Amino acid sequence: MDLPASSKSEMAYQFLLKQLIEAKIPPEAPLRIPALGKESGLGVTPMREALRRLESERFVVMENNRGFRAAAVTQGELMDLEGCRLVIETALLREAIAHGDDAWEAAILSSHHLLAKATEPAETSDLDELWVWSDRHRGFHRALLAASCSQWLNLFYGQISNHLDRHFFSMFTGDNRDKFLGSPELIAHSRAALGIAHHTKLMEAVLARDEEQAVRLLEEHAGFTRRFFDRVEDQA
């Protein structure tokens, strides 16, 4: 049975979004619609519709007479995204602490356990392990916010997180990966920014319903991350 056009368009969107976020399509790479349609098995029209949608979300750009291209990854955009995420995540975290129940607490503990079992970015050169860590890291932060109420803030948070994940994979794959693994300074900053220790402190503050401590740790966590990415860019 043939899929409806809307289903094919959504599948094309999800296919491209995953490729872009995980840097399998590198920043600024040209996007050839016929080739992508063939690779995905979804055809040209759904792929074109998906690219238009991704253009509106700033994952791709349309250049006159040159077609679509993956959007660039820049340090300025990263700092902007991190600042926006902190504002939104702080508001959502306050809501979640106010409204969370026992099931919310249990989900946080479970997501933290999964994150702790994943190999941290500083400890592996295996990209599959890196993708597992990224998925569990995002799951942990999502669990912290799961009891929040604002649908719009959660929507914006998801969009910003997708862009930040793209920056993360761009910095931890390809040539940047080799530079990272060859730099003791970057590895040390990665452990501070992305390691389990700080996530554990954040979890403990949230479960204790210590809102101000949790927000302070969230701000500190974001600061670690910004400084780490600053150093990655400086050595790029």
Structure description:
The protein is mainly alpha-helical. It has eleven helices and three strands, in the order αβααββαααααααα. The protein has helices at 5-21, 33-40, 44-56, 75-99, 102-117, 127-145, 151-172, 174-181, 184-194, 196-207, 211-235; strands at 30-31, 60-63, 67-70. It has a three-stranded antiparallel beta sheet.
Helix and strand layout, with pairings?
Layout: H1 5-21, E1 30-31, H2 33-40, H3 44-56, E2 60-63, E3 67-70, H4 75-99, H5 102-117, H6 127-145, H7 151-172, H8 174-181, H9 184-194, H10 196-207, H11 211-235
Organism: Tritonibacter scottomollicae
Protein name: GntR family carbon starvation induced transcriptional regulator
GO molecular function: DNA binding; DNA-binding transcription factor activity
Low-confidence segments, given as residue ranges, are none
Rg over C-alpha atoms, rounded to the nearest angstrom = 19 Å
Q: What characteristic shape results from the CA principal axes?
A: globular
List the secondary-structure elements in sequence, H or E.
Answer: HEHHEEHHHHHHHH
Q: Strand share of the residues?
A: under 5%
Helix proportion of residues, in percent? Answer: over 70%
CATH superfamily of the largest domain: GntR ligand-binding domain-like
What does the largest sheet look like? Answer: 3 strands, antiparallel
Assign the CATH architecture of the largest domain.
Up-down Bundle
Number of domains: 2
Strand order of the largest sheet: 1-3-2
What is the CATH class of the largest domain? Mainly Alpha
Q: Might you state the CATH topology name of the largest domain?
A: Four Helix Bundle (Hemerythrin (Met), subunit A)
The first-to-last residue Cα distance is 49 Å
Organism: Tritonibacter scottomollicae
Protein name: GntR family carbon starvation induced transcriptional regulator
GO molecular function: DNA binding; DNA-binding transcription factor activity
Keywords: DNA-binding, Transcription, Transcription regulation
